[in-house]
Amino acid sequence: MELLLSRYRNLSILLVTILAQLVLLAYQVKSNQEVRLIRVWAVSGVTPLARVLEASRSGVSHFFSDYFVLLDVRDDNKRMKAELDRIKMENQFLRTELSTADRAHSLAIFQAQSPSKTIAAHIIGNTTEPGAKVVMVDRGSSSGIEKGLAVITPDGIVGKVINVYPTASFVLLATDPTFAAGVISQTNRVHGTLRGQGYSTVTIEHVQNEEKVAQGEWFYTSGDDRIFPKGLPVGPATVVRPGKTSKEIYVTPSGFQEGLEEVLIIVDGVHAAIPDASPENQAVHLLAPPADDPGATAAPAQTGPAATDADRVIERYRKIGDVEKHVYGERGSGAPNYNLSPDQLSDRGTPGGKTEDSKTTPGPNTPDSKPSGNVPPGMTQRKAGPSTNP
Amino acid sequence: MTEFTEGFSEPSRKTRISKFHVVSMVGIPLAAILFQVYVPRFVTYLSYLELPLLVTVYFSLMRRSPVAGVFFGAGIGLAQDSLSHNPLGMFGIVKTLVGYFAASVSQRFDVENSVVRLVLGFFFFFFHQFFYWVLARALLGEAVDFEPQQILVVALLNAAVAVPLFHILDKLKVTG
What is the pTM of this model? Predict the structure, then answer.
C-alpha cells in the first residue's frame, strides 16, 4: 500500500484533495448550510482591501476631474481670464459636491418618507462568479443586516440580501436568473412572478393569456414573497404579448435606471397600497394662484378659438361653471354637474354666444383671471400624466 | 530532435524550478481575486478576464510540481468560492485539476516559451469553463448555458492577456 501511495503520490494527493472538496460540497448541498467560517474569513479579508481600493479610486477620480481637466482650461485661459478660471474651478467643485449631495439628499428624503425602516448601504464590489448578478455592499450583520432582506432604491426594487457577514453582505440583483419576487400590475391588479434573465430586463411569469396587461403598465411588489413589502415600484412593462401557455411580459427594472451606487436595505418592511399613478406620473400639488392685485390690470385672456383638446375641455368646464353659477376653488360650493351636454348648456343659460363674452371678459375669480389659464384654481394638475375624468 | 522541437521540450530547462517570495505567492492571487471582485464594476467587459485562473496556471507551470499545483489551485479556487454565492468547492475542484494538469504539462514542455504559454492559457481557460459547467449541472443541478463559440473567443482573449502577464510575473522570480 505504501509503495503504491509513494509511487502514485501526486495522483493520490490530487484525488484526496478533490474528494475532500466533493465532501465539502455535498455537505453544503445536502444540509443546505454553508461553511460560514471560511466565507467570513475571505469576506473579512477582502472587504477592507476593497474599501481601500474604492477610496483610492474615488480620490484619484476626483483628483483627475477636479484638477487635471480644469488645469487645461486654466492654462488655456490663464493670460486672459485668470479670474474666470478661479470661478470655473470653484463652480466645478461645487457642482460635484452638489451632485453628491443631491444623490444623498434624495436617498435621505426617501428614507425619511418611506414607511419601512431602511439602512443606506454603498456597493463596494461584485462577486467572483461569472455571469452572476450579485454585488457586495458595505453593511453586514454588525449593522443589523439579515439574510433575505429586500434591497431597493428610491426608484424601485434592486434585489435581496443572500449572504451576510460582519462587515459586508451579498445582494442578489433582480436581474439574476435565480431571482424571483411576487408582483402585481398597477391598473388591472394582475398577479405574477418576477424573474431575472441575466440581462437588463426581467420577465413576469405566470400571467394567463386571458388577463389584461397593457404595455407601459407599471408593476409593483405584491408582498406575496414575504421579502418585499407591497407597493414598491418594479418597473414598466416594455413588451407584452401572448405566449404559448402564459403571457410574455418583459419589464425594465426602474431601480437600476440611475445606476447602482447607494442602495437602501429594508430592515423592517411595511406594506403600502399600490399607487393610482405610476411613479413618473404622480400627481403634483399646485397651490391656488395668489389673489389679484386690485391695482393691476387683468392678464390677457385667450381670445382665439380653442386650439387643443385641453382648451376645449377648459372651455366646456367654464361654460358649466357659468351655467351652474359655480366658482372653481371656492370652499363649500360643491362640484358642478360635469355631465351636462353641450345642448343642455345652451338651453340652460348661455344663449346667443354668451360664452364667448364670458370668455373674453372673465371675472376676477374665474379661471381666466389666472395667468396660466389652463388649470382651474384649487384643482390638482397631473405632471405629464394621462387626462383623468373629473 | 530538431531545433524547433527542442525549443518546446528541452530537458535541461524543464527541470528548472522557479522560486518566488512568499509575499508574491500570497499577494498575487489575492490581487487577482480583488481585481475580479472590484474592477468589473467599472469596466464591465473585464469581467471576462479570469485572472485567478491565469495566476493558478502560471504558478503551477513555474513550480513544476503537481502537488504544489494541486494546493495552489485548491487555495485560489476556495478563496474564489468564498466570494461567490455558490457552495464552496466548485471553483476549488476545477482549479485543483487545472493546477495539477498545468504542473504536469510543465514537466514535459518548455513553459517559458510564449507560444506554449499562449496555447496553455487558451486550453486551460476552456477546460476551466467546461469543467465548471459540468460540475454546476451535475452537482448543483443548475441549468447553466454553455456557449462554446463565446467561450472560445473569451479563451483567446485570456490567452492573449496571459502571455504578457506571465512575462511580468517572471520578473518576480527569486534568482540564485
Answer: 0.53
